[in-house]
Each structure stands twice: as structure tokens, then as C-alpha cells.
């Protein structure tokens, strides 16, 4: 079940969702944290037939796919099933380590920080993370602030789970960035 937490495994994301009014609705926390944010794309993650979450990526003008970590952006996950916050934190660390080495001490620090800000989720819950280049990441659940992790390297690696070229879910990455430039 841990493989489902972040959607790691064989997945079939839906086509980019950029054309409907409901999909383009800008959550209030996005308006507060990223006022110039526009929807770039989205998709539904399915793993082994299970629907995991709908994901949407928001970014400001000038966003470049090849340099995502230098831009403010927001990633929104609308959960379609329940997960424990601790399991989400651990899977996040596993994915960050899959992309590049992370020392045990740093992994422990990042895991503790994620456990502090990520609660358990149930079907229908929505978590938004906002990447603040050079600063870190802030998180909201259902429009309410959860907290922040003030570590720029953490933020780059965390959002890289979905957006880095080496992601384990390239189809979802493509769907999220469908409306972005090169």
C-alpha cells in the first residue's frame, strides 16, 4: 500500500485537465501564495487499477520545465483514498532518495519535518504544496495552512518527485506540465 501513497508504480495519468471551469478554479490559498499562478496541467494517478489522486500544477509567468526548481509553483493533490501522513512522509523520502543520494541524518530531518506538516488524509482531502525557490515549501490542507519547511534543497527535491526529469511517473509529469513552455 505504501507504493500508492505518492503514486509510485505502474500508473496511467489522465490527459492534462486544462479546459473546464471547474478544473481552472483557483483555490484561495493559491491566490494568497501564488497570485500570478496559472494552471499548467493536471492528471489523475491510477496505480494497479486504484485511483490515488488528482494532481494539478500551477506556476507563474515565465515558468520553464527545464528549470522548474527556480520558479515559484504550487502542486495540488486531491486525494481519492485515505493515507496516513507518516506513510506519505516516508514514501516522499524514499522517492527523493531514489532520485539522488540523501544522507541518513538529512533523511531523518526531512522525514520529521514532513511528519510535522502532513496530516492523515481521507478521500476528498486536498493538499497544496507551494515551492518557494531559495526558501522552502509551504503546505495547506483543504485551504487551511499546515506549516512550512524552510529548506530550499528539501523543496527542490520534494517537488522533483513529480517534476524532475527522472521522476518515477513520467506520464504524470508530462500531464502536469502540458501547458508549460520548453
Helix % is 25-40%
Mean pLDDT: 87
How many strands appear in the DSSP assignment? Answer: 6
What's the main sheet like? 6 strands, antiparallel
Give an account of the 3D structure:
It is a single chain. By secondary structure, the chain is of the alpha+beta class. It is built from seven helices and six strands. Strands 1-2-3-4-5-6 form a six-stranded antiparallel β-sheet. Helix 4 runs antiparallel to helix 5 and helix 4 packs across helix 6. The radius of gyration is 15 Å and the shape is globular.
Features:
single chain, 182 residues, 6 strands, disordered N terminus
How would you concisely characterize the structure shown here?
The chain has about 180 residues and is an alpha+beta fold.
Helices and strands, with pairings:
Elements: H1 2-5, H2 21-24, H3 28-33, E1 38-47, E2 50-59, E3 73-79, H4 85-99, H5 104-117, E4 126-132, E5 136-141, E6 144-149, H6 152-163, H7 170-176
Antiparallel strand pairs: 1-2, 2-3, 3-4, 4-5, 5-6
Helix pairs in contact: 4-5, 4-6
